[in-house]
Amino acid sequence: MSYAGDVTPRDAWERLAADPKAVLVDCRTRAEWSFVGVPDVSSLGKQTIFIEWVDYPNGARNPSFVDELRAAGVADDDEVLFLCRSGQRSIGAAETATAAGIVAAYNILDGFEGGIDPAGHRGSVGWRAEDLPWRQS
Fold it and tell me: Does the structure show a pLDDT above 90 at 59?
């Protein structure tokens, strides 16, 4: 593993609550933020950082990802928790952040709404299924 590790959505929330230097980076696409909803960490006195890992609809990796992390104020010694839809793209984000010098980059397992379940739907696992705060953007 080339990043700090994987955490559950609940563990991510607890880390965000406990560590003033912990930040949440939602690396989904603008379309996902708009149509599915976004995590809301405002009750912790924090704001989610929104940086696309890939762009929609092309699916090309964002070449400015690390620059955008830095511009958002993410420092090498911050605990950075990456969230995508299902916990897959956020692995790449955490690996890239680690390669850029961020020593505590984590992937949030199951992401915002999880993978597709046996019935062909999303939402049975992940941030929303854990009843963690979120809102429509």
Answer: no
Confidence tier at 132 by pLDDT (50, 70, 90): very high
- Of 92, 35, 81, the residue nearest 59 (C-alpha): 92
- pLDDT-based confidence at residue 1 (cuts at 50, 70, 90): low
The reply to whether the predicted model has a pTM over 0.85 is yes
Question: Which residue from 61, 59, 72, 67 is spatially nearest to 25, judged by alpha carbons?
Answer: 72
| Strands in the chain per DSSP E | 5-7, 22-26, 38-39, 49-50, 79-83, 104-108, 134-135
Continuous H helices in the chain = 9-18, 30-36, 65-71, 89-99
Q: Residue 17 burial by CB count (10 A; 0-12/13-18/19+): exposed, middle or buried? A: middle
- How many Å separate Cα 6 from the centre of its chain? 11
**What is the arrangement of strands in the sheet containing 5-7, beginning at the earlier edge strand?**
5-7, 104-108, 79-83, 22-26, 49-50
Distance, in Å, from the CA atom of 62 to the CA atom of 75, rounded to the nearest integer, reads 19
